[in-house]
Amino acid sequence: MSRTYTVAVVGATGAVGVEMLKTLEALNFPVKDIKLLASARSTGKKLTFNGFVTAVEELTENSFEGVDIALFSAGGSISKKFAPIAAKAGCVVVDNSSAFRMDPEVPLIVPEINAEDIKNQKGIIANPNCTTAITLMALYPFHKTFGLKRIFASSYQAVSGTGAKAILELEEQVKQIVEHKPVQPQVYPHQIAFNVLPHIDSWLDNGYTREEMKMENEGRKIMHLPQFRASVTCVRVPVYRAHSIAVSAEFERPVSIEAARQAIIDAPGIDLVDEPEKNLYPLPLAVAGKYNCQVGRIRKDCAMDNGLCFWVAGDQLLKGAALNAVQIAQELVKLWDK
Question: Is 234 an active-site residue?
């Protein structure tokens, strides 16, 4: 009989933390005990897991005694402080922040791509950036078929990627505009309703943002492809949930649409939705709340040799965060159960 495990969720009251709990339930993860951890202001709040009501506890340095796996989604500063403490206590951390992603000692995992890297964990495993994870779900099957060189991409990222306040800001701005009232942006530097903002995360010296460079840096590590190059523009759009990415990819070998479609059909975690003549292609509304990503609009790139264009969409709270974290934990317990 398989073991059961004590699992902690750090940041349990946040949007991703709530999705982590739902996903642990939905995937029947072998939970013996659940520990819900958050900041002092959330202490005592009640959440339901597997039919039982559990109170949220304050995160402290003593929170991880007896915990086997901790899923972190509470921001980089919390992860930097508490993940090493948890690991020292004998717990394996799956961290959703950017704190450890590029640490050479920490595996960065998309289970459908590089689950074998989990064997190298030393107490902390990193979850990738949400846009990177969703893009690679489509890109990696193409890489296996044709040999990836580089991509040019633009993302269309939902406001829930910023957090609950951003969702409320979009709702409020839509009401203000409909009622012909002045719009006062607070979360974003400009109005987000009926607008798009080509600005996600902080600016770097090369003119890109941190979010944009994650695709290249994290993609290289996850795919074990050190020469991979990515030029990306990340755009915030007035969509509540689910990110979409338009990609033009260049490969080592000649591409064929038939082989590209078959690569997706054979790949786990992604669905082919590509019947443009029937107006069928991936949509944020269609993937919101779903585990699988979707890819469509697959066509040869007319601007470069051995090029393929495609459009991929996925729920950034799930495959971009909570689902991927729980899948990492599933792979971990498979190793432990051997």
Answer: no
Backbone angles phi, psi at 21, to 5 degrees: -65, -45
Q: Annotated catalytic, 309? A: no
Do the first three CATH levels of 5-128+321-337 and 132-315 match, i.e. the same topology? no
What are the residue ranges spanned by the domains of the chain? 5-128+321-337, 132-315
Q: Which CATH number fits domain 132-315: 3.10.350.10, 3.40.50.360, 3.10.290.10, 3.30.360.10?
A: 3.30.360.10
Run means of pLDDT, 10 residues per run, the chain, 338 residues: 90 94 97 95 93 94 97 95 97 97 98 98 97 98 98 97 92 97 96 98 97 98 98 98 98 98 98 98 98 98 97 97 98 93
Among 91, 130, 234, 293, the one annotated catalytic: 130
Catalytic residue among 143, 234, 243, 293: 243
d(CA 71, CA 324): 11
With a threshold of 0.85, does the pTM exceed it? yes
Give the architecture-level CATH label for domain 5-128+321-337: 3-Layer(aba) Sandwich (3.40)
